[in-house]
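Example record

One chain of 493 residues, shown exactly as stored in the release files.
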Amino acid sequence: MSYTVYKKQKSPTASDTAYLTRFVCLRRVNLEQQNKMGTAKMGPLIFSMALPAMISMIINALYNIVDQIFIANASYLGSYGNAANTVVFPLTVVALAIAVMIGDGCCAYVSICLGAKSRENAQKSVAGAVILTIAAGLLLTVLYLCFQEALLTFFGGRVNEETFHHSKEYFFYITLGLPFYMFGQAMNPVIRSDGSPKFAMASGLAGAAVNIVLDPIFIFAFRWGMMGAAVATVLGQIVTAAMAVWYLCHMKTIELSRKSLRLDGTVVKRFLPLGVCSFLSQISLVAAMAAINNALQKYGAMDPIFGQAEYAQIPMAVVGIVMKFFQIIISVVIGMAAGCIPIVGYNIGAGRRDRARTLFYMLLAAEAVLGIAALLVVELLPRPLICLFGAANESRYYTEFAVKAFRVYLCLLPMACINKAAFIYLQALGKALLSTALSMVREVVFGVGFALLLPRIWGLNGVLWSMPVSDALTFLISAAAIFFTLRELSAKD
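Predicted structure tokens for this chain:
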């Protein structure tokens, strides 16, 4: 779908992308706000729209990285615990992928129904999302518990016995919290679509705060180890889920009751496909992480240092830390780009392609500056970053490999930031197929492909180079997409 569609449509349709519908329809923007999107200075406008989205994305990223920081600084856990966290993380992303598919799809369909004055179908959609999320959470919990050892092995958990032990402990308790985690994540966009982005942000922040407070108590005071980290996370997720339940009982535009909580198959078939883009975006990361974890295990075993049992967990622990830092940066990138989407949609609809083009330039420039700033940090100050993750308790091999991992794995951060921003902007223009294709190429074709290929040539170093090589090649494709998009926006009617 090209951007010209927005000139012809009075309201979104089922072919609109998940990102677009998630963020364009998050707020029922009043007339004053709409006028601002068409007339206000672009810089302050971008900042005001992007800040809430950025905060929400960072909050989501905090859950896992906070666990990893406290685990790393517990001398009795250290790199073994961090490696275990890295093993379990992709499995939580699978849960997130299912949740956002339901939540984003529901958000999209609710906005369509409200635009068409069909409150009944909007109600059925939310009710269906609630039931589906609960059912999916319970089913995934059962499956995970039944196939625990096989799943952990697949994601590299058997790098050594200590790591596998910690992985099983952490995974068990995290799995028990999956229904709460999935419910909170799925209902977040639904709450936003009801016109309450601040409440959605507050619920996520409350959960993260609980996790941050309880982690040191459980890990250091009670010495509960990986169980403590997991329980702190789950209790935070329960708080977020509880706040979501409260909000569902007090929605602004939709009234839910026990009688309305029924699964309507026709409505489900309509809203679930709208979340497929979000699902694919998340699940492609799982494929990349699985390939990387297994490559680290395989080629680490061939290394003269990391082939020793007492050091075998270090590569996986370190790369997990680097990926979490990258996740924080990308959260800011996504938040900034997502905040721009309502502005894009409004100005395209109003025929102001000049403002949409200016926004694209400014967004790319801002993301490039962010990427350069982050790059300077990882290249110049890797040791202070490593110290956050318990380097003082580890061997010199840990520190040396961590410095190299930060500097190599993230050496093309500016390109990665621009790539992600371009993907989201293309979605805002209705180019869902192109955006999804580019994302899949980056994560699956390049991410998995080079994680399998490069280690054959360079061993463990090949794993580290798989990300910058993937980002560089993706950037070449993204640059072409950016060029043609700008040319489209510059063309006369």
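Notes: The chain has one domain: 5-490.
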